[in-house]
Structures are given as structure tokens and as C-alpha cells.
């Protein structure tokens, strides 16, 4: 069984997730937003306290609030793969050009060591994460689906009562709506969606009441 633990970090109130295979303690860190030393220590202390076996660094997409802690994670766990969809590499590589003006002068860039792609299955101990391609908020945005646990880490695609913004470079409203309909609303209603910001929701709740989808 896969357990999902959330931390809210940085000035954007971004949700950083630990995906933990309960049987083996194998763990993926998804979208680490830990920027300040205090935030980094919070993340590190939890991992050490729980004796987690960190095996992956995964980015759903590469906007600044979701990648602030990438370099920190790789410094702590230098042998783990860092995976990002190829279409979001330009998004990631642009971050150093605006990190300072956005108030993050200590940001350190880190390059992925591999790619995420639609249909890919990531083995995490006895659990599996299915990669679904869901662009619109960012060109290379993916979501990570745990079918056995009926839960999904969705980045900035779908929120409780809202959707990701599409006014950033590479964003497209129609593409995002199509991604939600094809990649999220096709999942069972009970699927829990863990978004990049704000509280968790379910596919069924958003199908019924999200004003952007009804």
C-alpha cells in the first residue's frame, strides 16, 4: 500500500509529497518545494525519523515553486534518479533567470537524470506509479496515479473547486481542460487527488461541482 504524506513549503504554499510504499519504506519525493533551511530540515528530519528509503525525485512539472528543493534532495540522496518530462526541460532551465527577482536568490539548479513519459510505470517497492501526460498548465506536466490505492498526485492540473492557471509561458486553457477530461475524469470517482496547492479532493467531487468542468 502506498501512503502519501504532504508538506506545505515556500511562499507559494506549495505541496511537497512523499510517496511511501508501506511494505518496504521505498519512497519517492515529488515536487520538493523546500527552500529555507528550516523547510529543508523539516523534510530531512521526517525522512530520517521514519527510516524511509528514498529512491526517486520526481517533478510533475518545473515551475519554480515545485523545484526549489530539487538540488537539496539530490545533495542528500545523490544516487537517486531525478525524472521530469522532456517537454518541461525548458521550463526547468528558465528558473535561474527569474528565481532572484521572485525572492529566491539562493536557488540552485539541478538537471534531471532521466525522463517521465506517458504510460511509464515506476516501481516503488511493492507499489506502482502510472505516469499520465496532462499538459495545459505546463508543456510537460504529468500526474502520478496509484491505481491500487485509488489516489493521484496531480501537481497543478486540478484543484478543489478550481484548475491550474494557464497564463504562464507554455500554458493553454483548452489543452488543460482536455487533459483533465482525458486523464483525470476517466478515473474512478473515489480517486483521491493530491494537488500542488490546497487540500485534497476526489475525482467525483470535481466532476460534480467544479465550475470549470460542469
TrEMBL record:
Cofactor field: Zn(2+)
Domain Metallo-beta-lactamase, chain residue ranges per copy: 13-197
A UniProt-annotated Pfam family: Lactamase_B
Gene3D superfamilies (alphabetical): Ribonuclease Z/Hydroxyacylglutathione hydrolase-like (3.60.15.10)
Source organism, top-level taxon: Bacteria
Keywords from the named record: Hydrolase, Metal-binding, Zinc
UniProt-listed PANTHER family: HYDROXYACYLGLUTATHIONE HYDROLASE GLOC
UniProt name for this protein: MBL fold metallo-hydrolase
Species this protein is from: Hymenobacter ginsengisoli
Amino acid at each position: 500500500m502506498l501512503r502519501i504524506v504532504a508538506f506545505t513549503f515556500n511562499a507559494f504554499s506549495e505541496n511537497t509529497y512523499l510517496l511511501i510504499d508501506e511494505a518496504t519504506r521505498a519512497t519517492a519525493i515529488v515536487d520538493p518545494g523546500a527552500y529555507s533551511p528550516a523547510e529543508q530540515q523539516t523534510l530531512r528530519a521526517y525522512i530520517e525519523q521514519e527510516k524511509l528509503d528514498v529512491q526517486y525525485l520526481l517533478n510533475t512539472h518545473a515551475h519554480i515553486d515545485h523545484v526549489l528543493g530539487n538540488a537539496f534532495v539530490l545533495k542528500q540522496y545523490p544516487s537517486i534518479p531525478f525524472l521530469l518530462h522532456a517537454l518541461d526541460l525548458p521550463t526547468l532551465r528558465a528558473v535561474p533567470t527569474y528565481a532572484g527577482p521572485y525572492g529566491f536568490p539562493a536557488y540552485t539548479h539541478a538537471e534531471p537524470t532521466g525522463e517521465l513519459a506517458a504510460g511509464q510505470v515506476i516501481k516503488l517497492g511493492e507499489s506502482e506509479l502510472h505516469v499520465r501526460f496532462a499538459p495545459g498548465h505546463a508543456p510537460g506536466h504529468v500526474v502520478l496515479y496509484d491505481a491500487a490505492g485509488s489516489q493521484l498526485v496531480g501537481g497543478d492540473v486540478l484543484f478543489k473547486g478550481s484548475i491550474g492557471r494557464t497564463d504562464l509561458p507554455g500554458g493553454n486553457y483548452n489543452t488543460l481542460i482536455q487533459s483533465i477530461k482525458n486523464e483525470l475524469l476517466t478515473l474512478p470517482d473515489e480517486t483521491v487527488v493530491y494537488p500542488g496547492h490546497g487540500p485534497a479532493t476526489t475525482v467525483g467531487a470535481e466532476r460534480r461541482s467544479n465550475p470549470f468542468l460542469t
